[in-house]
Amino acid sequence: MFKSNQPASIVTAMLPTGVSRRVIAEVLQPAGFGALIWQARGTLLKDNWLQKYLPPISPAKKILQVLLPDNAVDSMMDAVIECANLHKQATGAVYSQPCNDVFVGKDFLNWQVSDTLPADNSQHRFSADLSLIVCIVDRARSDRIARAAVAAGAHGPVIHLCEGRGLRDRLGWLRITKQYEKDVLWVMTPAAESDQIFQSMTQAGELHLPGRGFMYQTDIHKGLFNLPSLMSNRYYAANVQQIIRAIDHLTGHAHWRDGALQNIGSGAGSAGLAAPSQSILTDQYCLSAVVRRHEHPALVDLLLDNGAKGVNFTFGRLEEAQAAQTPTVAGAQIADQYGVINSVSDAATIARMAAAIEDSASAAGIDDVLAYVNPVERVATYVYQPGRRDYREQQVA
Amino acid sequence: MTTAVTSDRYRLSMRDTWRVLWPYVRRNFLEQLQGIWFIVAYLLLFQALVLNLPIVFAAMISTGILVVAIGLMFFMEGLRLGLMPLGETIGGLLPKTSRLPTILAFAFLLGGGATFAEPAIAVLKAAGSGVSASKAPLLYSLLNEFSGQLVASVGVGVGLAVMLGVLRFFYGWPLKLLAVPSVMVLLVISYFFYQVPVLNDVLGLAWDCGAVTTGPVTVPLVLALGIGVCRVVSSGGGGHTGFGIVTLASLFPILAVQLLALYHYSAEDYVGASNGQPLPTLVAENEATVPQPELVPEYFSVHDLRRYRDSGELPANSKIRFVGGEPKLENGALVINEPRIVVTRQRPQNTAWFGDESWDTTKEFLPQLKTALLDALRAIIPLCLFLYIVLRLVVRQRLRPDQDVGIGVAFALTGMALFGLGIALGLTPLGAQLGSNIPASFATIVPWRGDSAVGPLFDGLAGKLLAVGFAFFLGYGATLAEPALNALGDTVERITAGAFRKKLLMQSVAVGVGVGIAAGVIKMAFHIPLFAMLLPAYSLVLLLTLISPHSFVNFGWDSAGVTTGPITVPLVLAMGLGIGGNIPGVTDGFGILALASVGPIMTVLAVGLVTRRREAAATQPEPTPASTPATA
Known about the structure:
Largest sheet of chain A: 8 strands, antiparallel, barrel
Strand order of the largest sheet of chain A: 7-9-8-13-16-12-17-10
Largest sheet of chain B: 2 strands, antiparallel
Number of strands of chain A: 17
Low-confidence stretches of chain B: 282-290, 620-632
Helix content of chain A: 25-40%
Number of helices of chain A: 9
Strand order of the largest sheet of chain B: 2-5
Oligomer: heterodimer
Largest interface: A-B, 84 and 77 residues
Radius of gyration of chain A: 21 Å
């Protein structure tokens, strides 16, 4: 396990399933990068009673993540945009986030820095002031939160499933009561609009109450998103983004949006319905780790033992650049799944967790691992306050 | 490998334990209640309001239904915690540690073993209880003297199917490529059978075997195994995600049984054939005519006469008829002189909701529990033991202590036992009364445990149509409660990251089963040969399959295999036998289940095609107007 000194970024793309296969084959593998890829869905909300019984089938999406040296980010994002036609409406999104610290295990295949890539010369102008809101909630509530996000002006969230460990795993056999799968909603938004969206998602999810979920917002360094906002599966002649863009085009400026947004946001706050500010945490960090599926429990244990309150993880496939090296049975490649582990905590705890990975992951036999830390702007979740009578807390044994 | 979380373990007081546990129990219990309320309410209301008959054994049935809900609650949690992780773990590890022959041998043993653990032969025997040796000799032989061979051939069929299904993951064959030719072969053989009277009787049995072999333990295990294998195997095809084994496991047994029947047909060693045993003489010949019970009038007593003399009031439910007399025309009016006035009365319609008997005395609680427990042990323990041995000896892995597989298996066992008990106490008697009472809509019958006959509610066609309508909702409701389908729905939702909702799958499958069972009743009521129903149904299915995307083919065909489980089968069989018994010439209940598995393939594929088109219309990327800048 070593700490990498080279500045690196995580590039994430949210793409329709068919396009993702093309992007991997045509962009990433020729360049020598493997990508972690997992299943997600777009949002398709119900709009009539019948859909309670016959819910719509949401469009299948894939989320791709690849760790790149900073100098390769722009050209790679360019190539992804070209390949996936991301400049068109309702296609997908791509963005990059620089990592604070990167730790790479000695067996991790993905890390091959080639200096042959051209330096920053993007042909596309990326938006710089973007935010990503990630919301982890109960499956039954995700539609409601997605609706709130769309109503507040966001695109329809891209949702995937995650499993998690945390509080209930410290309860002995009672851990069976855990609802083991949650929805993770991803919303990309211009930073200026993120307050409203964050606020309305917090309210819709009642995240200030215990056990309701966890939501955090991180800054996106640069990116481009053209995700559809679907309120229903009916066919509309134009989607919301197209209408907004058309108004932009007609008026010749985007200032008309400011007024509209203030009107949307001020309602709940001025009525005193805003989530209590105690449930918003700032100065947090997110530790992410990528590890082989069968080794993830050990790593999660390590994180939990080192102060993580809760850890969530999702499983995906690592599309390696050198696929020929993997063993085969009957002509089929045999490749392990990988888990992406995320845990958000305060700076001190994250440092402890990162140190634990650096020091003891290798000792525990986990060498095929990648870990990195990103800053988190704010977190909305239930925060225990001493003196509140409705929930008692037991002493730690 | 490692230990579980060591630090910060919380200790809870009793009260807090309860506070953690209660929402969990409530959530799971309500979820199961949601699944079964429809079928229970439907059956009860139909009996009480439409057929106007009291519900017999009300106390026992309600106890049974409560036990079913609790049992399902445990069983589904057991699947989630125990059986499915076990299957997935092995499926995910086996391709990494073993060679292909080992994997295929494992798959074959698992499939074959599952058939013996959840034997369908009892169900099939029940369906064929009215089969007579003289009318359908080969069918009679297969169900009696050759029943061992029947089970064995079904087991081999399922084993081969699981093996081929796993092999398919490695080579990336699409399911279409396997399922479509298989069905075509089956249809061709069926056509041959249809031409030969002796073989034609077996057709229903063969197709039903495909439907009943996949039970609530086998399906989740096999699904989990497939998902585990697909997790590590990438053959480049994409699209297949671990489904498809169940499909093959419901097609291959049909072929196996057909081949077995062909063998015995050519060897001529079935009852009454040249090399076989002579026809048993003890078998009571089931005549083509069904004895018609008479509507019994209830006679007045001397007591009634005396009361009429005293008060001048006729007793309730009296009917007045005029007999005899001289009709004459007087001033344009019809006058009848000196008629006799006859007052009779029918036995009053029973308006009570519940019958007098509240508990079947032949069904004691404890012996029933023992039977159910033994069945559950047989269905779960050998399979789990087999998987565990494979895990330890072949894959050489241990289970993590915090994976709770042990708790899961214990839950599954408890759940299965309670579930079986609940079905025996609750759903079977309820289904049996409804099944034998439903012919009252078109025939005169003595109701189940009743003492006097009730007349046809409607004449001829309308009555039969009522029975068909009843069958549709019976199939619909029973399917929603099926545990194997619930497990499939959960899995589909998980694999597609929530894009394909469980509810959509369940509802479309349930409608499909309803249609299939209604079609089965039509077949019985109007004497349509099974082949004439199967051919158009499967032709349509094949057409839909060819034009559907691969993922829907996987879900659709797999859901066909899981539909007929421990809830549907007793209800449908009771109904089939009840209706069959009141239609001259129909002696067995075969064929309904086969049709019940075609229906869901059709509906799921159709739903897939419809929503797919709508979704494509909604997400079609619009070409950016030329005047707007291409980049934001």
